[in-house]
Amino acid sequence: MSYLKAKKLLLAGLTGAAVFLLLAPSASAASKKKSAGSDPYGINKILKKLMAKKKVSPKKHVQLDIFLKPQNQKQLTDEIYNVNTPGKPSFKQFYTPASFRAKFGQPAKVTGQYKTYLTKYHLKSHVFANGLIIKVSGTAKNVNKAFSTNLETAKYHENPVQFSSKKPKMPTALADNVLAVLGITNLNTKAGGLAKKTKKKAKGPEKKYSPSKFTKRYQLQPLYDKGYQGQGQTVGIVTFAGLKKSNVTHFWKSEGVNSSSKRISVKKIASPSSQTTDTPENQVETTVDAEQAGAVAPKANVRVYQANFSDVGMVNAFATAFDENKAGSLSISWGTNEYLTHYLKNNRLLTPVYGQVMNIVMAQGALQGVSTFAASGDSGALAQGIGGKIGPISLPNYSTYAFFPADNPWVTTTGGTTLPFSKQIKKGVKVSVDKERAWGGDYLFNAYFKGRNNMLNNIKLYSYATAGGGGGISHLYNTPQYQEGVPGVNTFNARQYISNLLQPRKSPVLVSGTDYGRNYPDISADADPLTGYDVYDKAMGGWQVSGGTSFVAPQFNGATAVMNSGKGTRMGLWNTQIYQLAQDKAKTPFTVMDSTTNNSNLYYTGQPGKVYNQATGLGTVNFEKLYDSYQ
Question: Known PANTHER family for this protein (predicted)?
Answer without folding.
Answer: PROTEASE S8 TRIPEPTIDYL PEPTIDASE I CLN2, TRIPEPTIDYL-PEPTIDASE 1
